[in-house]
Design brief:
Elements: H1 4-7, H2 11-16, E1 24-25, E2 28-29, E3 31-32, H3 43-55, H4 65-85, E4 93-96, H5 99-111, E5 119-123, H6 132-141, E6 144-148, E7 150-151, E8 156-157, H7 159-165, E9 170-176, H8 188-197, E10 201-205, H9 217-220, E11 224-228, E12 238-242, H10 244-249, H11 273-293, H12 300-326, E13 332-335, E14 349-354, H13 359-368, E15 371-372, E16 374-376, H14 381-386, E17 394-398, H15 405-416
Parallel strand pairs: 3-15, 5-6, 5-9, 9-10, 10-11
Antiparallel strand pairs: 1-2, 4-12, 7-8, 11-12, 13-14, 14-17, 16-17
Helix pairs in contact: 3-11, 4-11, 5-6, 11-12, 12-15
Length: 419
């Protein structure tokens, strides 16, 4: 039965917002299944970046009009991203170059609070940006890192293994909300509760989750969360959320004139103001989508809730169609959850291998048909190592809410040519 949210979802309106989707390869429209490495952006994001540079380009805290206007826009961006992640306090939102840089900075600060004998937990279902920063910080602080395993048959996190490795010495659990390689959604509330019971902090990598599902940092009870605007239809900007009491007390690395309160103590140097303006525009695009689905959604947060209900329902139908078609191809293997009854446990990112072609060869075949996919390990090296898929990796088909059933049928037809 079709979900009511999916039934009211206007994919053609969404597609009209994204000028990049008009690209053609030969006589055919390009098919953008490359979103997990960076989505297309709506026209309003492009306009926001250009408008900032044309009319409001100034540094922080001046007394003249462009600086005051720039500061007002940046303050609104903090409020907008607080709405996006589900936080009340906009001062808990930190902007940075990217998720990886923000994670390295935070790991260095947290490492100063650890003692020898302490432990960290990372997982084999993670992007390496949520593994290596913690391993390097642990090395410098002389603490131990323990790795949580996976269940290879469906590429899900081994929760029993995670819980067995939590002890009174565990200081941090670093986990992804969703796998950027195989789409598995981790049970974040359960993980946070288990970590809390052990007295550990929780760091959430929501980079791959953010384009597909609503972020709810306060409801989840985590301590930190990171995401990347260029994965949820914005520019190349990283976003960190952290609990105010932690952001205010952790030993931040900053230059001497920088303020000693959040967010200034964490946003080192002059920020990418035009990128932050574009990030706010991406959030407001999603909010408008939500209001089109539910005109009663009067606040930005309520509109975002409506948007992600509709996105999740529509994407569920897309991934169901994709997995059904892939199941008919005898030379293609899907890695991860394929059970139609468990599709709520995954986002519509599907990775495959082919029995005759390498991932690179298969990606090239699809590119020749105007279908854009990624091949390799996507920095999910802990997972591809665990699955024995190095050095070639996988082919990743990344669906987003601007994709269509017709595009899925083009993909399946192109894969059918190499059966």
């Amino acid at each position: 039965m079709q979900d009511a949210s999916a039934a009211s979802f206007d994919v053609e309106w969404c597609r009209r917002q994204f000028p990049g989707l008009g690209r053609r390869v030969g006589q055919e429209p390009a098919v953008f299944f490359d979103g997990p490495a960076g989505s297309q952006v709506p026209e309003r994001v492009i306009d926001a970046v250009a408008r900032y540079l044309a009319h409001t380009n100034a540094n922080h805290d001046g007394v003249f009009p462009t600086s005051r206007e720039s500061d007002a826009l940046l303050a609104e961006a903090h409020r907008g991203l607080a709405d996006f992640v589900g936080a009340e306090d906009p001062r808990e939102v930190i902007f940075g170059a990217n998720m990886t840089s923000l994670t390295f900075a935070l790991s260095r600060a947290l490492a100063r609070t650890w003692e020898r004998g302490d432990e960290l937990l990372v997982t084999r279902l993670a992007h390496d940006a949520n593994v290596t920063p913690w391993m390097l910080a642990a090395r410098d602080a002389g603490v131990n890192v323990r790795h949580v395993g996976i269940r290879p048959e469906d590429c899900t996190l081994d929760l029993a293994d995670l819980k067995s490795k939590l002890t009174e010495r565990t200081r941090l659990v670093a986990v992804a909300c969703a796998s950027n390689a195989v789409g598995t959604i981790n049970p974040v509330p359960e993980i946070v509760e288990a970590a809390r019971d052990a007295g550990a902090m929780v760091f959430l990598d929501a980079v791959h989750y953010a384009p597909h599902r609503l972020l709810e940092v306060e409801a989840w009870g985590a301590d930190f969360l990171v995401c990347s605007a260029y994965k949820f239809f914005g520019p190349h900007v990283g976003v960190l959320w952290g609990r105010s009491e932690l952001l205010e007390t952790l030993p931040a690395y900053k230059v001497r004139p920088a303020p000693d309160e959040s967010p200034g103590r964490w946003m080192t140097g002059t920020q990418n103001h035009e990128g932050i303006a574009g990030t706010l525009a991406a959030v407001d695009y999603l909010a408008e989508l939500g209001r089109r689905v539910d005109p009663r959604a009067w606040s930005r947060r309520l509109a975002l809730c409506a948007a992600f209900r509709a996105i999740a329902a529509y994407e569920r139908e897309l991934v169901e169609e994709l997995l059904g078609g892939l199941a008919e191809l005898r030379r293609v293997r899907v890695w991860g959850i394929t059970d139609p009854g468990r599709l709520d446990e995954r986002v519509p990112t599907v990775s495959v291998t082919h029995s005759q072609l390498t991932p690179r060869e298969l990606a090239r075949h699809l590119a020749d048909h105007g279908i854009f996919v990624w091949h390799g390990n996507f920095y999910a090296l802990p997972l591809t190592d665990a699955l024995g898929l190095e050095p070639d990796g996988l082919v990743r088909i990344g669906l987003l809410h601007y994709n269509t059933r017709e595009e899925i049928q083009r993909l399946l037809a192109a894969l059918g040519e190499v059966e």
